[in-house]
Design goal:
Layout (H helix, E strand, L loop, with lengths): L1 H32 L8 E6 L9 E2 L2 E2 H18 L3 E4 L15 H17 L4 E9 L10 E4 L4 H13 L12 E2 L5 H4 L5 E8 L3 H7 L2 H20 L25 E4 L11 E2 L5 E4 L9 E3 H7 L6 E4 L17
Parallel strand pairs: 1-4, 1-5, 5-8, 6-7
Antiparallel strand pairs: 2-3, 6-8, 9-13, 10-11, 11-12
Helix pairs in contact: 2-7, 4-7
Length: 328
């Protein structure tokens, strides 16, 4: 009898070791595919706007402050989970360090310095945190944009967008590919996403976005998505307590627009150089979602112009894939 017990224990140990090794091989292959070396994956966290550039604002709610608060919470949770983290700005400061320069020059320099940080970390994943604003206060929901330069960016954006359903059950948005008005994403040499966490123009969502606990939940959504993205082992995580399926209904979903980051939501990222050296930005909303304004006027009004928008297209596929330790 003892012989069979010993044999069974040995067999179970072998199965566990085999399972671990397969999981490890898959994780390593994903890291190799992304050019990630070493044991600890690296993430560059970008808190959008900062310093003189407040981003979107509604009353006394200023986007840059929420961006930084969420980014710092995300940093702390990622570090606990074994990530190496680089912050573009850990404080309420812009990166240009040119207080006497024109706004346009300051914003362009700020953007190039953020790109320099990305390029200095070629083995990293880039995650930029922003908030949205729209003329219609009924519009809500996180929107994720992804870089067109690497297919992995779209994979990560899909995971983050799907994960937000647990925090925002009525969110029917799908990830959107960045156009050339989003300089950092459009030119990123690494997997890169912008996470527009919600709309400051909606009073209920704005109150949530200002709440420390809600901000922590956003950080958990992104962390879980990064872990899933890096492992890609095909396993399905447990349904969290209080989580909802992506198939849940949303009132008026057909009329809720998906945003295209503009002068309010992601103005600090919306700087792009063309062949003539001019700088362009995404601007106020129009019917096609392709509004534009001059660089000077966009820089001066960043945070007050509404985001461009288009009609919602499709629903998020799949259900909840959050770990059992999720607090919601």
């Amino acid at each position: 009898m003892k012989k069979w017990v010993a044999f069974g224990s040995l067999a179970m140990l072998f199965v566990m070791l085999f399972t671990f090794m397969m999981h490890k091989v898959d994780t390593v292959s994903t890291q190799a595919r992304l050019g990630i070396d070493g044991v600890h994956p690296k993430v560059v966290i970008d808190a959008g706007h900062g310093g003189y550039d407040g981003g979107a604002s509604v009353g006394d709610i200023i986007e840059k402050n929420i961006n930084l608060s969420v980014a710092l919470k995300l940093r702390d949770i990622l570090v606990i989970n074994g990530f190496e983290v680089v912050m573009t700005r850990p404080t309420d400061d812009a990166l240009d360090n040119m207080p006497d320069a024109a706004i346009r020059e300051r914003k362009t320099t700020d953007m190039y310095k953020r790109m320099d940080i990305i390029k200095a970390n070629p083995d990293a994943i880039f995650v930029s945190i922003h908030q949205n604003k729209f003329t219609d206060s009924a519009v809500t929901g996180a929107q994720v944009f992804y870089s067109p330069t690497m297919p992995e960016s779209e994979e990560l954006a899909g995971l983050i967008q799907n994960s937000f359903v647990n925090l925002q059950p009525d969110n029917k948005r799908v990830p959107k590919k960045a156009e050339n008005n989003l300089y950092l994403l459009y030119n990123s040499p690494v997997p890169a996403v912008i996470v527009e966490c919600g709309f400051l123009s909606n009073p209920t969502e704005a109150a949530n976005l200002c709440d420390e606990t809600y901000q922590t939940k956003i950080a958990l959504v992104i962390t879980n998505s990064l872990l899933q993205f890096l492992h890609q082992d095909g396993t399905e995580a447990s349904q969290p307590a209080g989580g909802e399926s992506a198939s849940g209904s949303a009132a008026g979903a057909a009329s809720v627009p998906e945003t295209s980051a503009g002068a309010s939501g992601a103005a600090s990222d919306a700087v792009a150089s063309d062949a003539s050296g001019a700088v362009g930005t995404a601007g106020s909303a129009d019917a096609s979602g392709t509004g534009s304004v001059s660089a000077d006027s966009a820089a001066e009004t960043a945070g007050s112009a509404s985001d461009a928008a288009d009609p919602a297209a499709g629903t998020i596929s799949g259900g909840s894939n959050m770990p059992a330790w999720y607090p919601f």
